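We give the chain.
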Amino acid sequence: MGATDGRGKALAYSGGHMKVVLAYSGGLDTSVILAWLREEHGAEVVAYTCDIGQGAEVAEAEAKAMTTGALAAVVDDRRESFVRDAVFPAVRAAAVYEGEYLLGTSLARPIITQGLVETARAHDADAVAHGATGKGNDQVRFELSVAALAPDLRVIAPWREWKLGGRSDLIAYAEARGIPVPVTREAPYSMDANMFHISYEGGVLEDPWVAPAADMFRMTVDPTQAPDRPEEVVITLDAGTPVAVNGEHLGPVELLTSLNTVAGAHGVGRVDIVENRFVGIKSRGVYETPGGTLLHKARRAVESIVLDREVLHLRDSLSARYATMVYNGFWFSPERVALQGLMDAIQAPVTGEARLLLYKGSVTTLGRRSPNSGYDPEVATFEAEEVYRQADATGFINLNALRIRGFGSDR
């Protein structure tokens, strides 16, 4: 399957006058795609690079795209939007996929697609293209987002169309045309980076028994080599949104950068999982999410003294649904938007501070406080008090035991 419009209908190429905006990273896949679109279809290609904090490759992308034959190269700084409009809402929703994955790549794709669509409009393009494979989740995330934002735009997915069979074929294609790529035959794992995380998959990581190389990680030090002295960090939340670190109020980008630095220095935030992709494949992913790990820990700590029990349990029951929506690419769906409204309403009283201890890959809550706290030490105490009549618990237990007596394990 090749190009489609936003409604999934297949479209034929119109010849040598097509203009395509390509989501371009400068990596192996998109470098080859840029050349392939020009070579195979005579398309004019605008390379769109969305800066969401992936680092040095952003500065290199513009020149590399032009060298590879792009009509134009657009570099778009969306770091603020990424953190404010994607990362923080997901943190407020306690969104963790399958208990461990903090959704760094999943959250980035809707933000990238917004910029991709805006660039396509600005350049009067016929289509947009992406480098996601036909076996992965990103193809779904990109194309569902395009369907929501610009259903009239064509979508080109070369991995579902060309005859190149895998990364080895792409490396050979690039070498034959003198296209520089950062992937070698000796280290062929794939990496995706942004300010929230780095993901690693494929190649040498495809054997789920083999440990990742120690020198692979970029955001976190080896926990065994982390400092021998622990470090305390205080994170301030306002209605569930992080606003300050150690009493210093920071903007979204500066705050996440600060937490990445301190957590990474202590080896916090590594995850190695085998996850269930939306397309039905199990895939091994290794992730570094240092600052994000602290944000989720801090939010939970403040929630524990602020939120009503049933509200907290309701939220937790819905967080997995929310995370699955985001993971599967339904960021712009009506159900995710509606659920976000509920999550944000629940977070309204979650204002306060969490005191965390970082040490050799672990993060521990030391304390939490909030002006909205529902924690009452006079009720919680094990000392003598007059607020709670312990004798009342007898009737409470007897009432709850009624159905257990009637439908116990002996029946």
User: Anything to note?
Assistant: Residues 19-86+103-188 form a domain with the Rossmann fold fold (CATH 3.40.50.620).
